[in-house]
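Trying the structure run again after the queue cleared.
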Amino acid sequence: MSSATTQLPTRLHGHAEPVTRSRGLWLRLSVLVHRARLDRMLAEGGDPAASQELGLRARQITSEPYRRTLADSFDRILAAAEGPRPRLSSAVTPANREVRAARAALLALCRALRDPGPVEPAGVALARQLLTDGAGPLYIESRNDALWHALRRAAAALDSRT
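Done. Tokens:
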């Protein structure tokens, strides 16, 4: 089956536009399905030029809207940690004591994520991992400032000049 030549008419935003089922669709689908693995590879310093999938994921996560969304998520976590205790919930909750102790590093990461300049995908991937890893330092109490170190590492990895 030749997916590159199949044309399907569709209506987008009020006008007819042909949609080509091509490698682009499969690439985006592959990135969607494998985003956690791709993020791990980027966080470990993987080269976005190594594959189309890594390149697309790097472009996705380094976009300004994506970075603002991450920063907003960290802001909400900090606000919740500094506010009244939430009611009983089945949601994984952040380690509030750790979040409050790492407040300055968390705010620095948010500023770096919101910076309109170019950033390294590794830093964004590290920040995303902090938010999504329920067994990571954002959610688990520790005695060795693991969250502070992880936040500093992510912020430093964002810097495209290093």
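The helical segments are 23-33, 35-43, 52-61, 64-82, 96-101, 103-114, 121-132, 146-158. Worth checking whether this holds up in the mutant runs.
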